[in-house]
User: Fold this.
Amino acid sequence: MQQPNHPMNWILELAEKAWEFMLKLLMMLLLWLSPIKDYIYLVLALFAINFVTGLLASHKEKIKFSAVKAWRTVYKFIMFTLAIISAYILEHIQGDGTNLAKIVSLYIGGVETYSILENIGRCTSSSILSDLWVVLKKKIDDYIGTLHLGGKKRRPFEPHEFQNEEE
Assistant:
């Protein structure tokens, strides 16, 4: 038991005050970020689904589980969460109502959904992405065909127009 006027008391008291300050700061940050919590939950849910479907696909293909890949998923989630938070901060700085955090989270959600569909295709040995692309391409072509540019119909695009030239 320490004595009341022991020299270490001020250090312990300082540490307690610093801890209290850090907790209050953390709570203020969480309250400020509360409007984007649903976006972060969306990304977290999609990451979890992607992780599970990836594990199932790897198991089916007899690919060994790797803790490095699991940690890479955690790292990716942290980075994507920081991207959503950064977009939210930029949205506040701009103040023009662009809802940038929503756009960023929906883009990340789309990427994760694509990966989930890939994993489902691997699990079921089906071509779900190819089939989905055929349907989407038809819908996009139909939509673009309805647009007019200078009295002319636009031509439908082809998938090779959007492929990376390095591939």
Strands lie at 148-149, 152-153. Residues 127-159 form one domain.
